[in-house]
Amino acid sequence: MQFSRIIIIYLFLINLAAFGLMGLDKRKARKNLWRIPEKTLFLSAILGGSAGAIAGMYAFHHKTRHWYFVIGMPLILVIQIGLGIWLMSLC
Predict the structure, then answer these.
(1) Number of C-alpha atoms within 13 angstroms, CB side, residue 83?
(2) Which of 9, 1, 81 minimizes the C-alpha distance to 73?
(3) Within a 10 A sphere around the Cβ of 77, how many other Cβ atoms?
(4) 15 vs 45: CA distance, rounded Å
(5) How far apart are CA 23 and CA 86, in angstroms?
(6) Tens of pLDDT along 29-63?
(7) For residue 23, which of 49, 62, 54 has the smallest C-alpha distance?
């Protein structure tokens, strides 16, 4: 399997997981259950799931009142896009 194909599959899965974590945490918040730590939500974004985390934030209306999510998640995405462009220019 080509390396680029592996990267695409990984990014799809991590974004799906980040999206799901946002939805799961919102459901737990509504039911007043044990919550997913915010550092776990940010870690999923840092590991490549920032687009999924942003989509989940707005799809589930979750963490949109916390400035560090509203600013932090898009900032992570911009940094990741910049790193991706830089890495592709090296090839």
Answers:
(1) 9
(2) 81
(3) 17
(4) 8
(5) 32
(6) 999 999 999 999 999 999 999 999 999 999 999 99
(7) 62
- Cβ neighbours for 13, distance < 8 A, ≥ 6 positions apart: none
Predicted confidence at residue 4, as pLDDT, reads: 87
Residue type, 71: I
Report the candidate in 2, 83, 24, 22 with the shortest Cα–Cα distance to residue 48: 83
| Nearest C-alpha neighbor of 68 from the set 57, 59, 81 | 57
How far is CA 89 from each of CA 29, 46, 82, 86, rounded to the nearest angstrom?
Answer: 43, 21, 11, 5
CB 57 within 8 A of CB 63: yes
